[in-house]
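Q: Structure for this?
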Amino acid sequence: MARRNTIQRSLVLEAVNKLHCHATADEVYEEIIKEHPTISKATVYRNLNLLSDMGEIRRLEIPGSADHFDHITRNHCHVKCKICGRVFDVDMDFVAGLETGIRDTYGFDFTGYDIIFHGVCPECKKQQDSLQG
Amino acid sequence: MARRNTIQRSLVLEAVNKLHCHATADEVYEEIIKEHPTISKATVYRNLNLLSDMGEIRRLEIPGSADHFDHITRNHCHVKCKICGRVFDVDMDFVAGLETGIRDTYGFDFTGYDIIFHGVCPECKKQQDSLQG
DNA sequence: TTTCTTATTGATATATTATATCAATAAGAA
DNA sequence: TTCTTATTGATATAATATATCAATAAGAAA
């Protein structure tokens, strides 16, 4: 049952930390095979799950997209551009304690929440504006 | 280009309204084929998309689950039970105007947000308690 | 060091959700 | 009734992720 340290696991952690902008499993895989072309994608998925469970990295579930993985930093939430699909950080100081407001209201045990904002990122907005005149 | 009324489209709308508890495409399909076994699943998906675009129903994207579809009611957000995976309604009066707080902070055009709370529903909590003594 | 147990890997199959393709059908205008 | 084409049904395909399983290797034990 004891966890074993493997090269593959440290490569996955290293890649997530290096990419650090909420990389997808596939992006992590692509990053690793640059230097270590023999790693299996299944191994990348497995270790992303393991590292998430261990609390070494954070899984970010994006509706309609693949899961993203982030190194652990201060609390923030995310906004997904509906044009290009990229995900950006948003400070979340102002939503702190959001779940405490409903904790007592329902029979539910709340363990957390995901907030995904939708919008159009500055870059895509610029592109749209230039297209429409 | 003009939209045509089809039996299939009205069946999909009818099923969503009947199930009304954030049914998945598959659940909508299963509901319809009880009476109309010849409808294609592709048609169900297509009409769920169309009806969402038309504003007749609401698409609810759940991280890690299939999209759910809801008839339009007053604003509410959702909480997903991490045990059974079911999705429940939550009043969202207290989070109204959430995105206005960040609208000016970034170069982003915010169009909305999804909040998915996580937790354990009363039923699963009860089951857990009885297992653990 | 060598042996041994089994966690982990790589490769691949499978599952799930959803869209793309395309000939056949049918809604609704002409 | 005829005609155009939106829509359908069937199926292929895509994207994301897990399951399976024999082979490998981490790390404890001898």
